[in-house]
Amino acid sequence: MLQSVAEFVLQYSPQSSPQTFSSLVLVTAAIFCIVSVLLSLVRQRKLAVKSVDGVPGPDGHWLKGHLDYEKWSSQQGGEVELFHHVSLMTLDSVLKCALSYRTNCQTQKKQDPYIVVVYEASGQILDRLMNPLIHNDTIYKLTPDGRRFFKNCAFVHAKADGIIKARRKALQDDEEKEKLRKKKHLDFLDILLEAKDENGSSLTDEEIVGEVVTFMFAGHDTTASVISWTLYNLARFPEHQEKCLEEIEEVFGNSSEIEWKQLGKLKYLLMCIKESCRLFAPVPIISRTLDRTYEIDGHLVPEGTWVMTNVYALHLNPHVWRDPKKFDPLRFTTENAKEMSPYAFIPFSAGPRNCIGQSFALTEVKLSLAMIIRKFKLSVNPDNYVPIEDMIPELILRAKNGIKVNIAPRA
């Protein structure tokens, strides 16, 4: 049986391990000491799988089942809003990869309530950050928006709790236990459920819920943003789309099977992904709490101060980037990268709290884009270009009216 993209990313990525549960988003490390224990377990595991059985086939095709493949194929150049479809695919992927949870969120007719709540909560978090009057929890809970936000949080936690309980129940089955013992690579949730400290104590459900909620959000919304904006740019610039297609065909040929090492050969596609992340930073703003007093631009900023970095502005800073508004993947050639400051390009943040899941994300992004470009020709009407005033800098970068492109099946 040919495997889905989600299963590929989990089982065959050298980095698709419990390391991938850290977040791009602004969240607090709830159980840092236990996370450290899990990371030490990861380092001891031998990840030696090098190939996959094959690109997903018709019956279980991730494009067919996960991105309305039949609808896309029948449109013959019709318009598609990318972010909705892609975010469902990435949510399904992270649920399968990290949590052993299978869902029909991509094929059900009604919009998945989790997606709706995540969209709404993202906007609420940004609105609250920008308004000091409602930073206090007690005051915020008295406002209509605050009550709605905490209701949304309760829904997300209930969703995570349900997934955890379902997995606990499944692991009581002898057949499922045997499958777990035979697994070469435990997924994120199984690691959390099995983890014990030096005293033999397991994680509490509350601790696990906190990590699962973080991973569910960070593992799907940010990845969906990268995929969607990259497809948008390739639709806008067909010359780069054709170069990516030529590279994909050269690497994969007519084979229905791929090997792990082949993904590393998609160098031009990776440059297009990076340039898209520069122009459309998936997480436009990151923050840190200062651990000591720093001097910033001649001013002393005391310990405990909350500071923000505008990644979107950094990536378009003309003092850092030549012709910053131009889509130019060649900025990220090996030669050019050597001349680049390590803090000039930070789509996955930087420093000791950078995104530990970026290898997982990039694997999913590269494979997803390669399969889409191989199947479909993308274009975009000038009316659907996204002007800067229509960009919504929530926890991730969205477009006010969606990211719309035209698609047509390749002959």
From TrEMBL:
Keywords: Heme, Iron, Membrane, Metal-binding, Monooxygenase, Oxidoreductase, Transmembrane, Transmembrane helix. Belongs to the cytochrome P450 family. It comes from the Eukaryota. It holds the Pfam family p450. It comes from Pocillopora damicornis (Cauliflower coral). Heme binds at C355. One of its GO terms (molecular function) is iron ion binding. Its cofactor is heme. The chain crosses the membrane at residues 20-42. PANTHER family: CYTOCHROME P450 FAMILY 4, CYTOCHROME P450, FAMILY 4, SUBFAMILY B, POLYPEPTIDE 7. PROSITE patterns: CYTOCHROME_P450. This is Cytochrome P450.
